[in-house]
Amino acid sequence: MTNSSKENSTTKIGVLGSGQLGQMMGLEALPLGYDFFCYSPEKDSPCEKAGATATVASYEDLSSLKTFLSKIDVLSFEFENIPKSTLEYLESEKKQIQIFPPPKALVIAQDRFLEKTHFRKLGFRTADFFHLTKESSQMDTSIPYPWIIKTLRFGYDGKGQVKVKDEGEYKEFLQNAFFTGKEEYLVEEVIPFQKEISIILTRFQNGEIVCYGAVENEHKNHILDLSIFPARIPVGLNLEATEMASKLAESLDYVGTMGVEFFLKENHMYLNEFAPRPHNTGHFTQDCQSFSQFHLHVSAITGNHPPTDVRPKPTLMKNILGNEYKESLAIARTLLKDDRYQLHLYGKKDAKIGRKMGHMNFKGNLEEVNPLFHDL
């Protein structure tokens, strides 16, 4: 499925997933002259509302997926929780169509044990961890309490995890942990971190990497609340995180934009997890007065070279959740009277508590922001 087999020379980009990340990819791709397609089980999605041609079908419907692939030149992802059987099918299709990032990156990212094991093989510092199954649940471990116990797959924004402070709580957890006997978890030590940091980078097909530098992130109720760019950390730590993220991307033969999350503890970077797609902590790039993470992702997967000059300026990003959504919009419209603020809404119908409905960026430093910004 190369461009020469198509009716015209317009590159056709397809993504699996159809949420706000796909929406923002499409908003970069369409004005650049690319055709944009999305595939997911969701009807009337944010991606479709941005102009994508949508296929609505199950990720496991391989017949529909094969038809979708026949319409595009390059496939990417805006959602990593794709069934493993589908990723295995895509792996077998790589000779027929370009797929960026490689499906193996998603296989690793969506399994917390594989992910942490991969980090350790690369020599990175992580929280201590072990793979919890019914068989291993009675084994002794040297990891001190408290622990975070996470489902092995498909958790995000604090979902699928519980904190266990002592042996008594662990025994309580085990009482209901293995309903089928096949459940799997990752047990991690709790790291008393100073800051949460992320790196947003894009790796191009020629192996070149563009990185914005470290972002500092604050969470509320396990959901990202505020991103501060640049992170308020020493230059050496910024460089350490950047080098670790770059080494990770190279180890995966990665192409496209990715987000890599770290904990800063006692002036050391601990690698926490990565997302094989553009990332919520990279939304500041839309208004950083340089190229956005979505622009770089589109450029990378379509075989373009990296830009020669990426110099992002200080920017803040505030997530807007479904909690008190009308009030947040009223605040946002007040802030928009100042052109340093930019509002990005996703077009989701239902404003549910904890649901990401949009975000607002501020072009400037934390000290300059209107206090109302924190009330969004």
UniProtKB/TrEMBL annotation:
An annotated Gene Ontology molecular function: phosphoribosylaminoimidazole carboxylase activity
The UniProt record lists the keyword Ligase: yes
Reactions it catalyzes: 5-amino-1-(5-phospho-beta-D-ribosyl)imidazole + hydrogencarbonate + ATP = 5-carboxyamino-1-(5-phospho-D-ribosyl)imidazole + ADP + phosphate + 2 H(+)
Signal peptide extent: none
EC number: 6.3.4.18
Annotated positions binding ATP: 112, 150, 155-161, 188-191, 196, 219, 272-273
Enzyme class: ligase
Record keyword Ribonucleoprotein present: no
Domain ATP-grasp, chain residue ranges per copy: 116-302
Biochemical pathway: Purine metabolism; IMP biosynthesis via de novo pathway; 5-amino-1-(5-phospho-D-ribosyl)imidazole-4-carboxylate from 5-amino-1-(5-phospho-D-ribosyl)imidazole (N5-CAIR route): step 1/2
A GO biological process held by the record: 'de novo' IMP biosynthetic process
PANTHER family: PHOSPHORIBOSYLAMINOIMIDAZOLE CARBOXYLASE, PURINE BIOSYNTHESIS PROTEIN 6/7, PUR6/7
Main function: Catalyzes the ATP-dependent conversion of 5-aminoimidazole ribonucleotide (AIR) and HCO(3)- to N5-carboxyaminoimidazole ribonucleotide (N5-CAIR). Catalyzes the ATP-dependent conversion of 5-aminoimidazole ribonucleotide (AIR) and HCO(3)(-) to N5-carboxyaminoimidazole ribonucleotide (N5-CAIR).
Family to which the UniProt record says this protein belongs: Belongs to the PurK/PurT family.
Protein name: N5-carboxyaminoimidazole ribonucleotide synthase
